[in-house]
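Supplementary Methods. Inverse-folding protocol.

Structures were first reduced to a discrete structure-token string of length 401. This string, shown here, constituted the complete conditioning input.
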């Protein structure tokens, strides 16, 4: 008999007010924001066993267990996302062992799964924010989640972990607020936006912007820009999944239905598979949120945010705080190529930051970090349990009482 799946419930934290608004890096303000989050495990009495987990572009606060309903998500909380996106990694005796650690995962500011975003209601107008919602930077997301940590009484994280776009946020938090975290784990990520990534993201922006239903972002009273969002997802999907894996999935999962576009007739299972991925995605995501996160990725600049000129100066903050980095590469990654992690590690070493670099050998591409816990768990456990620095008693986490 299989074990019962643990059910989860999203919680909501309110930050800011009319008297003390939340201020974005752009200078824009909102009178208050909501952060949707979930937690796993128990916070120990010293509040020293907390791990903050940043999700990827289309992820959510729901990282583990089963959650079948989240308020304020309209019909976007589809069955596809009822199971936590990192369920293979979080739980008793898993990589993020809930017998030892208190894990927090929050939906990004600008998101569409309960945190304040473009689809949220503007209290001043009674309508969705739409195009009026501010642009979001990684430092804004970090600020909103640090406010959540303050609310929970957590002064210093045992670790911050982020995969893909989440890794950019992990680095941002670690360098902007080095006193707030001990261990930093960027998985399949980087330290800047490359030219190739910039072009791929720009294509996705254009796909949404050119959908006739987009209307500059004010589409909530009519048809959503589903064609544009589906195309954006298709553009990104081929960087997330290794091309060989796409071919295998297309052959196994999707039969060629011979459907037609306006003129072109779909002729191959790979084409049918990609159309299926795009159509499925639009049911669970908001186009304005997609644009905010894509824009956040395009504008990512940890040097600007920290007010420094070089990466050596940036990571000198991590060195001074005694942080340790565990950097994961995936050898078949087409989204964040292994060269990007090598560049990050080079900067860490020049700044004399303690680090460990692991290359995962996988045929699943960027998505490996979601699918193959056996390739990551030994290294994550080694890090989180303090075995990387056996001489330091400080690295050991006080057991949960």
């Amino acid at each position: 008999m299989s074990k019962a799946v643990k059910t989860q419930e999203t919680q909501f934290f309110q930050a800011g007010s009319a008297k003390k608004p939340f201020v974005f890096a752009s200078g824009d303000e909102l009178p208050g924001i909501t952060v949707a989050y979930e937690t796993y495990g128990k916070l120990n009495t010293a509040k020293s066993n907390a791990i903050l987990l940043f999700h990827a572009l289309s992820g959510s606060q729901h990282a583990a267990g089963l959650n079948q309903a989240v308020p304020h998500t309209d019909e976007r909380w589809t069955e596809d996302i009822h199971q936590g996106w990192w369920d293979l990694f979080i739980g008793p005796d898993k990589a993020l062992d809930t017998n030892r650690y208190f894990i927090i995962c929050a939906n990004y500011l600008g998101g569409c799964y309960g945190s304040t975003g473009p689809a949220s209601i503007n209290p001043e107008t009674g309508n969705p924010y739409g195009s009026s919602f501010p642009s979001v930077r990684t430092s804004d997301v970090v600020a909103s989640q640090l406010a959540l940590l303050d609310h929970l009484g957590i002064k210093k994280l045992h670790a911050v972990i982020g995969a893909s776009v989440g890794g950019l946020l992990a680095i941002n938090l670690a360098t902007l607020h080095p006193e707030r975290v001990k261990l930093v784990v960027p998985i399949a990520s980087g330290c800047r936006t490359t030219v190739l990534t910039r072009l791929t993201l720009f294509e996705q922006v254009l796909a949404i912007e050119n959908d006739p239903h987009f209307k500059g972002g004010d589409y909530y009273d009519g048809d959503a820009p589903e064609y544009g969002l589906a195309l954006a997802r298709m553009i990104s999907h081929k960087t997330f999944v290794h091309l060989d894996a796409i071919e295998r999935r297309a052959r196994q999962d999707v039969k060629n239905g011979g459907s037609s576009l306006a003129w072109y007739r779909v002729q191959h299972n790979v084409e049918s598979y990609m159309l299926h991925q795009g159509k499925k995605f639009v049911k669970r995501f908001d186009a304005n949120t997609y644009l905010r996160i894509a824009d956040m990725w395009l504008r990512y600049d940890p040097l600007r945010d920290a007010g420094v000129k070089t990466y050596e100066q940036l990571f000198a903050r991590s060195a001074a705080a005694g942080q340790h980095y565990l950097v994961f590469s995936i050898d078949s990654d087409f989204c964040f190529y292994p060269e990007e992690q090598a560049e990050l590690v080079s900067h860490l070493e020049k700044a004399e930051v303690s680090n460990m670099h692991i290359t995962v050998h996988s045929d699943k591409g960027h998505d490996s970090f979601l699918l193959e816990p056996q390739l990551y768990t030994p290294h994550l456990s080694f890090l989180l349990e303090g075995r990387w620095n056996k001489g330091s008693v400080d690295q050991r986490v006080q057991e949960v009482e």
